[in-house]
Amino acid sequence: MILVCAMRGDTEAEAEKLATRIARQRIFSDEAGKMNLSVTDVGGSALVISQFTLAGDTSRGNRPGFSSAAPPEDGLRLYTHFADCLAQQGLPVETGRFGADMQVTLTNDGPITLWIET
Questions:
Q1: Active site residue 53
Q2: For the segment 6-49, what is each residue's pLDDT rounded down to a tens digit?
């Protein structure tokens, strides 16, 4: 599962770079138990979910601010472009519905969660 947040000023070039990095990131264990295989190497797939709340600024007050998130029209364009770029890397890709209030369940198999920025 990949949670994606487009920020103000993000570009298609950054979405492309991010998709390439994620497809090549060696985060799955090899036969020796070392994180040495990519999602492509293990024949995995990607579920891409738009998550604008990752832009939440909690540095002041008691309510997060989201002004650094991209406007919805830019967010949708970059989210779609990112998912398309992952598919071009050879990954089977499924997406959530942009802007929808979805119920998504994640079972995190292992101790790894990464924050990847361009």
A1: yes
A2: 999 999 999 999 999 999 999 999 999 999 999 999 999 999 99
Domain annotation for the chain: domains and CATH numbers: 2-57+67-95 (3.50.80.10)
The catalytically annotated residue of 53, 88, 113, 118 is 53
Active-site residue, selected from the candidate residues 28, 40, 51, 103: 51
80 is catalytic: no
Q: What is the pTM of this model?
A: 0.91
Number of H helices, E strands in the chain: 2, 5
Cα–Cα distance between 8 and 50 in angstroms, integer?
15
Backbone torsion region of residue 90, taken as left when φ is above 0, otherwise alpha when ψ lies between -120 and 50, otherwise beta: left
Annotated catalytic residue within 11, 20, 25, 52: 52
Virtual torsion, Cα 82, 85, 89, 91, nearest 10 deg: 60
51 is annotated as an active-site residue: yes
